[in-house]
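PT: before anyone asks, these are the final sequences, not the draft ones from last week. 291 residues across everything. Please model them as a single complex and drop the result in this thread when it's through.
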Amino acid sequence: MVLLSTPVDYLPIAMMFVVAIGFVLFVMFATHWMGPKHKSKVKLEAFECGIESKGNSRLPFSIKYFLIAILFVLFDVEVIFMYPWAVNFAEWSKHGLAAFGEMLVFLGLLVFGLIYIIRKGALKWE
Amino acid sequence: MNPSLPFFVLATLSVFSALMVVLSRKPVHSVLYLIFCFFTIGGHYLLLNAQFLFAVHIIVYAGAIMVLFLFTLMFINMNKELEPHKSNLLKGAATIAAGCLLLVLVAATKGAETLPAISKTSDIGTVSNLGKALYGQYLLPFELISILLLTAMVGAVMLGKKDVE
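LR: through. Structure below.
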């Protein structure tokens, strides 16, 4: 069975997006409009207690965050490919385990990557 | 109602957000406009009935690539003025060069075969049909993707990780 969906079927989702964004905008403007405003130096401080904050927040930061972000992108792409597989899996699984094996080979190779990353200590915090 | 109205609404939004990416002064605002631009372009994919491409576009581009963009922004020291002010001569030359490129692109698409902006008949881009093609006819390229991802992982670790002796 092929479920043929046309762009028109996505209209409710688009409407939901509009309603969600509209609600957020409404609430944000409403709080600014309705609430009282006190702008003193103490009130606008980022932290109420502790060490006084110095400098500004625009500091360059370490490359190790970037490695984690890159690895996240790679595994994200991997998960994407499971999506068309999962949609068809119920139908394919009636004809044996071939589809399961296909995904097993794919994921197996990537598990080697994961083992390599862990053994290299790329996710360790120094 | 004009049947291609959704296309025009989306196209206006994507052009507007793409312009704002370039024009906004603050880099983080540019990134936020770029995310919005990606969502509108995802909407175009939906109109063309390419639903898998839509999902990939949202998850990979709006989700993952934008995280990388934000991270890269944070590597830059934004307290300094990095970009020197360009002279008017350079601005004029850039305008002419970009205009020539636009002219070439318009001329190239002028004679091209046109397809409707909103697809009603094609269903090749749906998730289940694409899965059938990917896991049947194109099985070998699919399995090779995993090797590509593996090399990307190894490369990222090799470049980004200092070896602890």
